[in-house]
Amino acid sequence: MLILGNDTVRRVLDGRELEVLAAVRQAYVQHARGETALPHSVFLRFPDDTRNRIIGLPAYLGGAQAVAGMKWISSFPGNVSLGLQRASAAIVLNSMRTGNPVALLEGSTISARRTAASAALAAATLPGDTPDSGVTLVGCGVINREVLRFLRVVRPELRAVTVFDLDRERAAAFATCSDPDLTVTVATDLDQALAANRLISFATTASVPHVDLSACHPGTLVLGLSLRDVTIDGVLGAVNIVDDHDHVCRAATSLHLAEQHLGHREFITGALGDLLDTGTNHRRDPHRVTLFSPFGLGVLDLAVSALVLRVARESGLGVELTDFLPAEEAALSSTG
């Protein structure tokens, strides 16, 4: 069992944005082609605590280097006020030959960067009539910081950033720490932020829909990464692109509420994997808002984890725990 902590995972991934984008893109295409197994995520909630949760995402990603595994990720929003990250995660990868666990990776960075890569691929695949030179980030945490990093890879023309957060100090800190090559503006309210650019990323801790997107210009692409910001009216007024029709309509997401309201999913236009599989860009509707709602597929975590594991092994990184599994003799006696 190879154990890779957060410092090692970051060391591997830093500067490999293009490889992460390629891995996430390939995972989406394989999912679209039916080369994955993706059970529903398991939500562990607590009877006396409605805010916090832990989610299990089991998955299998096929292909020449097939991999299976599971991400176990917690979301405790109160951590932020304690100076801790909201989310923490562990990812287990299993051998497809024996089923044995072969690696344990700290998963918060993997999870954040696969989410950001997903958003960046959507932005690259769904261009507007004119290049997006500015982006609005709603929520100034780890996820949108990574989104900005990956957007600049696929959209190098980005020069202006508008940020908004209910915590104005966090927004100001985000602006101060951003790349000096970018012009960063802190919006005074959400409507101002939504009207500032035609590319918007939501990465908040909202649990109840609160925005109908009416402040957005026609032709705007909204990356709805936090899944629960947009009202039913906002969803139904948009062109809806998802990562998976079934997964995204669960767990009281905005699209799930829209499905319950209508009794069907016909308001969903398509899935990103299908668009990527065509190998061409798909211009977004210039007269409506396009809403990308990715539930967050476990196969994306596996794809990036496999990349990290390969590089770590090639570089001799990580801690090999040789006695994690039973010795052969003990294994034979326990089954005999």
From TrEMBL:
List the NCBIfam families.
Answer: dehyd_SbnB_fam
The record's Gene Ontology cellular component field reads: cytoplasm
Keyword Lyase attributed: yes
| One matching Pfam family | OCD_Mu_crystall
Q: Which SUPFAM superfamilies match?
A: NAD(P)-binding Rossmann-fold domains (SSF51735)
Q: What class of enzyme is it?
A: lyase
Q: Which GO terms describe its biological process?
A: siderophore biosynthetic process
TM stretches of this protein: none
GO MF terms listed in the record are: ornithine cyclodeaminase activity; oxidoreductase activity, acting on the CH-NH2 group of donors, NAD or NADP as acceptor
Q: Out of the domains of life, which is the source?
A: Bacteria
* E.C. number(s) listed in UniProt: 4.3.1.12
Protein known as: Ornithine cyclodeaminase
Keywords, sorted A to Z = Lyase
